[in-house]
């Protein structure tokens, strides 16, 4: 593989292209300054304006959300895995029918494997622009998002209508659902009973891992974060590992799985027969299966990254304690 070919599999942080109209709450006050990034795969964006950096999916999607302080993402639910880690800033995640069942605050490097089937939202509670990286289960990321009823109602009051076809229509631009396309129906009270009010204790205990704990666990070898043997025991269709300076040598290795590298801190030298490159914080690299390569920090100081590998597990299969 030539360096040019490898660059087509790398999305540099500074080259990310945002979409500001990706979801139904794009005009709702408090949520109208969000930026959505689709890095690998189509993600769950409801907007045709969303730019997809790498269209080929390895069995999961990679995305990101960037938000200024006090900006929030509204309550929604997924049927497949949704995993976030904080790249920049300080974030509050909350869940439940009204977002009051529980909350947890994540700092830079922390990771959250949000349980499926619950309404969840998040907001930047830091003082600067923040960024969270996302791993979404399945090639089609579950086919979309289920919004809490009040989110759809608030969006309609501010000019955005979600059609039952999953497409957003912006009345401020003169867009309206075409004939035969009805608005997305609101969930009924009976349907809402299927979305649990998961206790804080269960979520923090079983679904959250802290950065500095992972730094200690990965001192000598990669730390298994999400997977059948992971710290967060789950089988969502991919495994997540955490690597730091002592986790790998520069000896080349080969994997049968698709390997996506998500750099958290430091600069990492990726080398393979045919070339080498350096990955910086916020960069995403999709290493193809069966490519012999080596990976090691390229300079002194703190270095860490998350590694995601596809598995044969169903994308919707998640563990509940």
Automatic annotation (TrEMBL):
Keyword Metal-binding on entry? yes
Q: Where is the signal peptide?
A: none
Q: Does the keyword Membrane apply?
A: no
Among InterPro entries, the record links this protein to: Cupin_2, GPI/OXD, RmlC-like_jellyroll, RmlC_Cupin_sf
* Protein name per Swiss-Prot or TrEMBL: Cupin domain-containing protein
Species, as recorded: Thioclava arctica
Q: Mind giving the lineage of the organism this protein is from?
A: Bacteria, Pseudomonadati, Pseudomonadota, Alphaproteobacteria, Rhodobacterales
What keywords tag this UniProt record?
Metal-binding
SUPFAM superfamilies recorded: RmlC-like cupins
The coiled-coil regions, if any, are none
